[in-house]
Amino acid sequence: MDRRTALKNLALVIGSTALLPRCTSHSSVAHFNSFDVTYDQQSLVLDMAETIIPKTATPGATDLGLDKFIWLMLDDCTKTDDQKAFFKGMGEFSDLVKKTYNKDFADCTKQEKMALLSTFEKKPGDKKDAKPANNYSKELNGFFGTVKGLTVFGYTESQYFMTKEIVYELVPGRYNAMYPVKNNMKA
Fold it and tell me: How far is CA 37 from the centre of its chain?
């Protein structure tokens, strides 16, 4: 065998062994200024947003890209401590799903997803009690509240919603010359 060919083959083997672990690991899918997001985290937030605003006759959260909006708002508009609490709550949510249904959130049926998310919506019986009705941690409730709040906010601020669902008229609105005026009006 030629020495050059042997060195090329050796370099190819060494290079592929160095690259192979990077290809098989669950590395980050998205890189933001403050954190990196893995594929599992991205799909969890996407599935939660799609469960909150599903696709019907109108576009759902996936169609409007609300998961990307959630990550961007989390990166740009929250403090580092809140981001850490969000990721801790995300881990607790994944553990809760596995403990409840013995599978990931993405593998659950639509009814199971809705039942699980509705446990966060229970209100306390006493109005004076600021503590939530469920027994979940502050981080877990914060995670759900952040995902739901940003999903609804992103939907109501989306181009689809502002152009198709709500007809926006620039202030002061239309001029109606035939508007009836009462005769007894005081100046």
Answer: 12
The answer to whether 75 and 82 are in contact (CB under 8 A) is no
Which spans in 106-137 are helix H?
Answer: 110-118
Any domain includes 54 = yes
Helices (H) and strands (E) in the chain — how many of each?
A: 8, 2
| DSSP type of residue 177 | T
Residue 7 covered by a domain: no
Q: What six digits make up the tokens of 181?
A: 């005026």
- β-partners of residue 183 are none
DSSP three-state, residue 76: helix
Report how far apart, in Å, the C-alpha atoms of 94 and of each of 3, 26, 120, 144 are: 54, 16, 14, 12
Q: In a 10 Å sphere around its CB, with 0-12 CB exposed, 13-18 middle and 19+ buried, how is residue 147 labelled?
A: buried
Domain count, the chain: 1
User: pTM (2 decimals)?
Assistant: 0.72
Q: Please report whether residue 94 resides in a domain.
A: yes
- Segment 38-82, tens digit of pLDDT: 999 999 999 999 999 999 999 999 999 999 999 999 999 999 999
Q: What is the DSSP string of 19-45?
A: HHHHHHS--EEEE-SS-EEEHHHHHHH
**Which residues, in sequence order, are bridge partners of residue 36?**
31
